[in-house]
Amino acid sequence: MADVLRQRIAEHEWAPGDRLPSRAQIAQECGVGENVVRRAQELLISQGVLEGRAGSGTYVAEPRQRVRVVRSSAREQRGGSPFRADMKAVGKQGDWESRTEAKVPAPAEIAARLGIAEGDLCVRTVYEFLADGRPVQLSTSWEPYDLTSGTLVVLPEGGPHAGAGVVNRMAQIGVTISHAVEQPEPRQATAEEASLLGVQKASLVTHIRRTYYSDQGCPVETADIVVPAALCEIVYEIPISR
């Protein structure tokens, strides 16, 4: 059913901004139940093809260019902000808004990822990443407070090394990051995430759990990164040793 609706849009039966007929009408035309039409529309909304407007109906979404987000070890070797470098590569202005809280007790899952005890203090920073002023990615970062306490890099977005990225900041206190581990999985956006990203509630997102490790094998930072499928495509670059 989703393919049928997508094809009708591709054939210009409905143009961007047009309101679709009611689910009952579409169901009758296609010989299916209204529930099938609802699920097909929800799928297309999650993919950015359609958009739902409360109390108004379902509309053909205006086409939006998806931003390419590159996950690569090379992005950490450029100096400065990896996100800004990614956005510059696709001709967009990268920026972000953030909020940092120091001495936040680590929840059980975060503590396990950082190799510390539950309740140990962390520095937590919540990010909203922007491409040309529009939100395209969310992230919540956790760093052990004991690791950076009393240094110039204790606040990721404060001091002389603000916004330099985890790898470059940690280098300032003698911590060499050797690698990162990322665990991506698809899920639906929460109501809060959808509101921040400007997408429909329950839209598809990729949730990436990323952890940076020092050359001593110790985790030094972990983050939950949320990338909306309708706004971004994720590309992994894998270096090949010669």
**Main sheet strand line-up:** 4-5-6-9-8-7
Share of helical residues:
25-40%
Order of helices and strands: HHHEEEHEHEEHHEHEEE
Query: If you compute it from the alpha carbons, what radius of gyration comes out, rounded to the nearest whole angstrom?
Result: 21 Å
Which runs of at least 5 residues are low in confidence (pLDDT < 50)? none
Q: What is the residue-averaged pLDDT? A: 90
Strand content: 35-45%
Count of individual beta strands: 10
The backbone outline, from C-alpha atoms, is elongated
Largest sheet: 6 strands, antiparallel
Which secondary-structure class do the elements indicate?
Answer: alpha+beta
* Cα separation of the termini: 48 Å
Number of helices: 8
Structure, explained:
By secondary structure, the chain is of the alpha+beta class. The protein is 26% helix and 35% strand. The protein has helices at 2-10, 23-30, 34-46, 82-89, 108-114, 145-148, 166-171, 191-197, and strands spanning 50-53, 57-60, 67-71, 94-105, 121-131, 134-144, 177-188, 204-214, 219-228, 232-236. Strands 4-5-6-9-8-7 form a 6-stranded antiparallel beta sheet. The longest helix is centred in the N-terminal third of the chain and has 13 residues, at 34-46. The radius of gyration is 21 Å and the shape is elongated.
Label this structure with key terms.
242 residues; alpha+beta; elongated
Compact summary:
Residues 72-102 are annotated as: Disordered. Helices cover 26% and strands 35% of the residues.
